[in-house]
Amino acid sequence: MMQEPILDAAVRLLERRGPAFTMEELATEAGVSRATVYRRVSSRDDLARQLRARGVEPGPAMGGSTHERILAAVRAVIDEHQLSFTIEDVAREAGVGPVTIYRRFGDREGLLRAYLSRTSPRALAAEQLSDLEAPMEPTLRAFVGSVLRFAHEHPGLLRIALFDDGAALEQLRRLRRGSRGTFVRLVAYFEGQIERGRLRPVDPRRLATVLVGMLLGSSLVSRRLSLVHEDDHADAEGSGIEEQATMLVSLLLHGAAVPEEERA
After folding, report:
1. Using an 8 Å Cβ cutoff, are 254 and 154 in contact?
2. Per residue in 71-124, pLDDT tens?
3. 31: pLDDT strictly greater than 80
4. Among positive and negative, which fits the CA dihedral 24, 26, 30, 36?
5. CA 103, CA 121: separation in Å to the nearest integer?
6. Burial of residue 12 (number of CB atoms within 10 Å: 0-12, 13-18, 19+)
7. Of 14, 139, 144, 183, which residue is the least packed, with the fewest Cβ within 10 Å?
8. Domain with CATH 1.10.357 in the chain
């Protein structure tokens, strides 16, 4: 049956990406047209049902609550189209009617606001960086780990933030206006640690820039190398994040060179 290669492809995508893959990606993985996918699997709900009948649990984002499916669909269409998507694109991906999205979120901007509010690392960063008296190294490891996880799980947003200098970036800025950004919180954290004598008296903004550059560069290079070399290294698949965070924070705070007095 034609369903079998499609379901096999869905299982492979679940293992690699989790449940937020698009129907276009499913068609490519299965080696069939998107129209064929929709003839055999009428919606994401239907795909989740067929996978469960096979004994595979796709997770709530694929066949769970309507609200969660819609937000998962936003992530999928952003990964594919960045911000050049319509309500109809999201509705097809979520397996719902456009009217359902309008009723729940008001309009496209309301949908994006809800998605950004759910996915943004800002609230978590505010919590992680708020205690200036807590030990610095584990605090920074937790912060870096959360940003690396965000970068891995939301590559579409990451590409916009780093590489777009047009309408898409301006739209993100407008939607986030009024909330204190993660970078600003990191600068304030470093400033507080410098005042407490835990860090050398350097420019806290430069220090924050170095750390953010290291962690985003590490995330992007790992992803690119995995594509170029068809590598299934742990970092490329989102695991190994704690080890990566530990290494980056250690490099920032201690460097990589062994002090001369400690060399054999």
Report:
1. no
2. 888 888 888 788 888 999 999 888 788 999 998 999 998 998 888 887 777 777
3. yes
4. negative
5. 27
6. middle
7. 183
8. 121-262
In this structure, which topology does domain 121-262 adopt according to CATH?
Answer: Tetracycline Repressor; domain 2 (1.10.357)
142's tokens? 């937790």
Tokens of 121: 């690392």
CA dihedral 250, 252, 253, 254 (to 10 degrees): 70
Which of 250, 108, 219 is closest to 153 using CA atoms? 219
Q: What is the pLDDT of residue 69?
A: 80
* H runs (alpha helix) in the chain: 3-17, 23-30, 34-40, 44-53, 60-63, 66-81, 87-94, 98-105, 108-119, 122-128, 136-153, 155-163, 167-176, 182-195, 204-228, 241-254
Query: Contact at 8 Å (CB) between 26 and 9?
Result: yes
Name the band, by pLDDT with cuts 50, 70 and 90, for residue 236.
very low
**Concatenated DSSP letters of 151-205:** HHH-HHHHHHHHH--SHHHHHHHHHHTTS--HHHHHHHHHHHHHHTTSS-S--HH
Tokens of 210: 């170095």
Question: CB burial class (10 A; 0-12, 13-18, 19+) of residue 47?
Answer: buried
